[in-house]
Each structure stands twice: as C-alpha cells, then as structure tokens.
Specification:
Structural class: mainly alpha
Largest sheet: none
Strand content: under 5%
Number of helices: 20
Number of strands: 0
Oligomer: single chain
C-alpha cells in the first residue's frame, strides 16, 4: 500500500488519472478484492481436502495479545487496501461537488433577480444524475456522493431564498405578479426532476436515497414558506370583507309581500368576486396545482370559521335578515370552490357551517336541545347566535367589555380553548343579571335561563 501511494505521488499523470477516474479505480479495486476472496476460498477448500496449509498461513488464536497483555488490533487487509485510495477519493469528491455547484452558481450570479429557466434546471438535474450514476459502482461512494447532492439542493434553496419577496400587496397577488410564484415553480420543477432521478437510479443504497429525500423535504419546506406572504395577504383581505357584514342592515322583516329575499348580501358578492379573482388570475400561474390547492385549504377553513363567527355576532337580526344570512350560508360554499375541489373536504368547518344554518330559523328551545351541540357546534358558537335574539339589555360579549368587533375576533383567535370562551360568555350573562337588578327588575328575559342552561352544559362538557 505504501508503494502504491508513493508511485502516485511521484507521477503527476497517475495522480490526476486516479483522482479524475476514481470510480473506475474503485471498481477495479472491488473486482480485485472479490477475486482475492474467491481465490482464498478455493485454497481454503483445497486445504480442507488435503489437510495441508497451501496458503502458508497457520490458524492462530482468534485474538492476538501484545506483550503488555492488551488485545492487539486485528489487521484488516481490505480496509488497509481501501485506505490507500482515500486521498484519491477526497480529491474526487471535491471535484464532484464543484461539478454539482457550478451550474447553480452559473444561473445564480451575485446580481440575480430572476429564477433559472427550465432548461437551466434540467442542466442541474443532469449533473446530479450523472454523479449518482458514476458513483453507483460502490455503495460507500454512492452514499458520500449523495451527501454532495444534498448539499447541492441546499445551495439551490439558499440562492432561491434570496429572490423571495415578503411583499403582501394584494394587487400583485390577485393579478399573479408576485415574484414568489416564479420561485415556487422553480423549486417545484427541481423537486420533481430530482425525484424522477431517484426513481431511475435503482442501484442507490437506502442511506443514499434517504439523504437526498431529506434534502427534497427542504425544498418542499421552502415552497411552503414562499407561499406564506401570499396566503397571509389573501386571509387578511378575506377577513376584511367578512368584517364588512357588520356595516349591512340585517334587522328588516321579510319583504315583497311575505316572499323571502334569497339574494346574497353585498359583502358576500364582494367575497365571491375576490376569491374568484384569486382562482383565475393567480392560482393558474403555479405549476404545482396540487401543492397550491393543499396550501389554500387552510385559508378556506379560516374563511368558514370567520364567516360563522361574525354571522353569530350580527345584531339586530330580523326575519328578513335571517333569510339573507341563510342565503349567504349557501353562497359561501360555492364561493370557496376555487380554494378546494369539494367543500366537504374542509371537514369540521364544513360540518359546522351546515349544522348552523338550520338554527337560524329554529326556536331558542330547539337550538338548546340540538343534538349537534358540543359535537359539531361548539356551545360558544350557539350562544353567540342566541345573544342576537335577546333584548338590548342582554349585551353581546364584546359590548360588555367595550371592545370593537375586530378586537373581540382577535381575542377569539388568541383563545381557541372552548372553556376560556365559555368563561368569557359567562361574564356577559352575569353583566345582564347585574343590569336587571340595578334597575330593580323582577324578571329576566325568557331567553336568559335557556342560555344559562346551555352555558352550564358547555362548562360541564369541557370539564
């Protein structure tokens, strides 16, 4: 082994050949070792047959012992031979990393303001595929080259991250001009291409495959964070539109000679237009349709949650207003179709939306005895609806604390725990009792004992 290393050091030609063509050298080494092992096995079989030590090696004790009584390190000829190749392996891996990094550094100059083209991305993928295929001659080499590939994907993510914008300008989003769209598409293209390479290079050992798969998860994570400013801006705009329902009048009776007006409200039409605009002008510009739809689903859930919350805070609510609000319940299902393939995919928020709509027209007693209470409809949500049926003296929870509706909505966001919400509503009911006693009233509104009983059931259910 020493002679091998010395010859390589004295000959520049040999050194360059061994470093540049290291996989071929390693393959020759593996073939040589296999032949040596086969030769040894054949000779051992002959020894057993003839009873002679044909190899000239007598079996000694299993573990040699040094003069000081310690167990000697057992000589491993394969490892010793492999060690002579390590300088060439280090040099080869360094060159391999350069070959992987070069196409990325080429398409991401220091002044880069745009993402690489698909052709440039294909060049990066070809470099990755080539390195993995060449390294497939040896399991150990495949594992270390896979680590280089992981570093390559990490470098691409770092370069792409520099192009991201945190701008939440809703106009740029709804018109599809947000620069993050190009970054997401670029990351998606690379993710898909490298995934195909993994599927085609079947000789990769499991540790190498796992290393690259973990790096691909980093790409997916960056795609998620790239979408966050857009999703946050869409959610904010939706919330602002839903809040505007409190500027509309829902106190009127049924009009048109008793015929209910089933048309949706102004805010609902605005909401439908906004979501449709995002669905037609922004979403189609993403190449990763499935990924974007999955990312938009939480936005759809949040939209339903906000709608249900604020619909329950509308006061006063007349019979005509109930009809219009019921129409809004139906319209929001169709409005959200650009954000989810089936509204039922939203799960719990969808079931809540469907369960609450009939309560608009049920008596207070029926609402209190609904089988959906506690299972589908939180007690706090049902109580919000009942506050709107009470007398003006029975103030809504946010009125008791002298908050605005947006402030109360933020409090509900910060306190998702049902127990905390019920405790807050309890304070509103207690404030009503104090107000009645302060004016020396002799009886409470008929709705109060029903709401109190509902509150107590809710508290018991939450423990």
């Amino acid at each position: 082994t020493q002679e091998f290393a010395q010859v390589a050091e004295t000959s520049t030609f040999l050194k360059q050949a061994f470093e540049g063509e290291y996989p071929k050298l390693l393959r020759l080494y593996n073939d040589l070792w296999k032949r040596m092992q086969q030769y040894r096995a054949n000779m051992a079989a002959a020894e057993d047959a003839q009873g002679e030590d044909l190899l000239g090696i007598m079996e000694g004790p299993e573990n040699d012992v040094t003069d000081d009584g310690h167990e000697a390190v057992k000589f491993d000829p394969e490892q010793a031979l492999r060690t002579t190749l390590s300088p060439f392996e280090h040099a080869y891996l360094s060159r391999s990393l350069s070959r992987l990094f070069d196409p990325i550094n080429l398409v991401f100059p220091s002044s880069a303001t745009s993402t690489p083209s698909n052709e440039e991305l294909d060049g990066i993928t070809k470099a990755i595929s080539s390195e993995l295929n060449v390294a497939s001659v040896d399991i150990g080499l495949s594992i270390v080259v896979a680590k280089n590939v992981a570093k390559t994907l990490q470098l691409y993510c770092a370069k792409s991250e520099q192009l991201l914008s945190n701008d939440e300008d809703i106009t740029m989003i709804t018109t599809g001009q947000n620069p993050n769209i190009a970054v997401v598409n670029s990351l998606y293209h690379l993710h898909q291409s490298v995934s195909k390479v993994l599927a085609t290079v079947t000789t990769l050992p499991p540790p190498a495959t796992l290393t690259i798969q973990n790096a691909l998860k980093g790409i997916a994570a960056l795609m998620n964070s790239s979408l966050e400013p857009m999703l946050k801006s869409i959610s904010k705009s939706i919330e602002a539109i839903i809040l505007s329902m409190h500027r509309e009048d829902f106190s009127g009776p049924v009009q048109n000679g008793g015929t209910p007006d089933a048309s949706s409200s102004g805010y609902m039409r605005e909401l439908q237009d906004f979501i449709a605009r995002v669905g037609t002008d922004c979403v189609p510009k993403f190449e990763c349709k499935e990924f974007v739809m999955e990312s938009l689903q939480p936005v759809a859930c949040r939209t339903v949650e906000l709608f249900v919350r604020h619909a329950g805070l509308i006061r006063p609510l007349g019979e005509g207003g109930k009809m219009r609000l019921a129409a809004d319940f139906a319209q929001i299902e169709s409005a959200l179709t650009p954000f989810c393939r089936r509204i039922s995919d939203l799960g719990k928020p969808y079931r809540l939306l469907r369960a609450l709509r009939p309560l608009l027209f049920q008596s207070t007693e029926h609402v209190a005895s609904s089988s959906a209470l506690g299972e589908v409809i939180p007690y706090s949500a049902a109580l919000h609806y009942l506050f709107s049926r009470g007398p003006p003296e029975l103030k809504s929870p946010y009125e008791v604390t002298r908050w605005t509706i947006p402030q109360y909505s933020r409090w509900l966001d910060q306190h998702p725990c049902e127990k905390e919400r019920l405790h807050f509503l309890k304070g509103a009911l207690e404030a009503y009792v104090q107000a009645v006693r302060a004016r020396q009233g002799k009886e409470f509104a008929p709705i109060y004992p029903i709401m109190l009983q509902m509150l107590q059931k809710g508290v018991e259910a939450t423990g």
